[in-house]
TrEMBL record:
Short name of any one Pfam family annotated for the protein: WGR
Record lineage: Bacteria, Pseudomonadati, Pseudomonadota, Alphaproteobacteria, Hyphomicrobiales
Ranges of residues in domain WGR: 5-94
CDD domains from the UniProt entry: WGR_MMR_like (cd07996)
UniProt-recorded name of the protein: WGR domain-containing protein
Organism: Brucella tritici
Amino acid sequence: MLTQPYHLYVERVDPDRNMARFYTLAIEPTLFGTPRLLRRWGRIGTLGRTMVHHFEREEDAVALFLELLRERRSRGYRVKRAVGLGRGQCPTRIDMQA
């Protein structure tokens, strides 16, 4: 079982290059209690593509989660605030209005 929830949503937007990308990461338990890392990416406003990684230990899933986060941050992606997300939901767009 997971010790804490892991959910991340980042975007990279560059109007000059017509770039509007999102990337989500979430670590969730499977039906058997083992962790899986769910990745989703694509153009903002689309469903994008999905990839799932299965692990035996939560530590291995967290290590890949952090590695992918560092990689996305180095490519210009910025964290956006996720509001009202339930378990297993990955948004395609979150507007930052406070």
